[in-house]
Automatic annotation (TrEMBL):
Gene for this chain: LOC118936590
Source organism, top-level taxon: Eukaryota
Entry keyword annotation includes Lipoprotein: no
Protein name (Swiss-Prot/TrEMBL): Malate dehydrogenase
Reactions it catalyzes: (S)-malate + NAD(+) = oxaloacetate + NADH + H(+); (S)-2-hydroxyglutarate + NAD(+) = 2-oxoglutarate + NADH + H(+)
Signal peptide: 1-16
Stored NCBIfam families: MalateDH-SF1, MDH_euk_cyt, PRK05442.1
GO molecular function, one term: L-malate dehydrogenase (NAD+) activity
Domain Lactate/malate dehydrogenase N-terminal: 17-164
Enzyme Commission number(s): 1.1.1.37
Binding site for substrate: R104, R110, N143, R174
């Protein structure tokens, strides 16, 4: 049997994974959907059913997105389902990528933003609980991502908390790229940067455990860069403020880079991380070894194997890092405590 015929038969017999993207008419989703549909995330031989959820006024835009996906003639894309109904969107999901959220508007108090998003993610968490597979992997992208993820997880009590994560891979990729540019190497030669904490301006991009491959040898980032002031100052603030810098330049928030980070995050969940490497994810903080408060979604370095993440233990934390890790944790505790009051309302 010819290989091409064999592969065709395999594709036809494989069960499609059901993948939901919310906020599907938005600009991040527009950059994201093609990568998912062509096999960059769940595998080059894995058929896909895409479910696209957005609010009712956006359905005409979703129809246009569906037409474009159809016009790509992608061999893995079995079906595209646009909807504004949670009972349709969340049914039998294998993966949920929750991009849509209430953006902060001019003059809006942070507590009002939290209240609006608690309502959204409480509803979506309840829909996951009622309709999705209990094995569903949930990635929250919509900001404030950490706390939105926590609310969704609390609203789906029968789905393991370990199945929920939030996106800090964009920050991770930003940090990796900044180091690579400083060292004059491709980003693939930089590994094990860490984003600790919140996906906000308090996040802590940490390179104390980062390695840079120079002429075939993995060297400590501090030894290669040879500029401690930059690594403890401008590097950190550049990564923390990168989203705002993109908005100032584009007049729009990050979309292409956010979509790439989503693909990286979900691909690593599905396929695992390379031996000796770790990535950053916002995950449930229970039983961590770094003194971070319980009951938070906090970004840690993780290894992933068999679709299960594990926080990397035993990394040395100096006083400089401890102060920054504690500061971002304090912000998350405050966000959580505010959000939980709305959850029970």
């Amino acid at each position: 049997m010819q290989l091409s015929v064999f592969l065709c038969l395999v594709l036809q017999s494989a069960e499609p994974v059901r993948v939901l993207v919310t906020g599907a008419a938005g600009q991040i989703a527009y950059s994201l959907l093609f990568g998912i549909a062509k096999g960059d995330v769940f595998g080059k031989d894995q058929p896909i059913t895409l479910i696209l959820l957005d609010i009712t006024p956006m359905l005409p835009v979703l129809d246009g997105v569906v037409m474009e996906l159809q016009d790509c003639a992608l061999p893995l894309l079995r079906e595209v389902i646009p909807t504004d109904k949670e009972e349709v969107a969340f049914k039998d999901l294998d993966a949920a990528i929750l991009v849509g959220s209430m953006p902060r508007r001019e003059g809006m108090e942070r507590k009002d933003l939290l209240k609006a998003n608690v309502a959204i993610f409480k509803s979506q968490g309840a829909a996951l609980e009622k309709y999705a597979k209990k094995t569903v992997k949930v990635l929250v992208v919509g900001n404030p991502a950490n706390t939105n993820c926590l609310i969704a997880a609390k609203s789906a009590p029968s789905i393991p908390k370990e199945n929920f994560s939030c996106l800090t891979r964009l920050d991770h990729n930003r940090a990796r790229s900044q180091v690579a540019m400083r060292c004059g190497v491709p980003a693939t030669q930089v590994k094990n940067v860490i984003i600790w904490g919140n996906h906000s301006s308090t996040q802590y991009p940490d390179v104390h455990h980062c390695k840079v491959n120079m002429a075939g040898s993995d060297l400590a980032c501090f030894d290669v860069v040879k500029d401690d002031d930059w690594l403890k100052g401008a590097f950190i603030s550049t990564v923390q403020q990168r989203g705002a810098a993109v908005i100032a330049a584009r007049k729009l928030s990050s979309a292409m880079s956010a979509a790439k980070a989503i693909c990286d995050h979900m691909r690593d969940i599905w396929s695992g991380t390379p031996e000796g490497e770790f990535v950053s994810m916002g995950v449930y903080s229970s039983s961590n070894s770094y003194g971070v408060a319980e009951d938070l979604i906090y970004s840690f370095p993780v290894h992933i194997k068999d679709k299960q993440w594990k926080i990397v233990d035993g990394l040395a934390i100096n006083d400089f890092s401890r102060g920054k890790m504690d500061a971002t944790a304090a912000e998350l505790v405050e966000e959580r405590d505010t959000a939980v009051t709305f959850l029970s309302a």
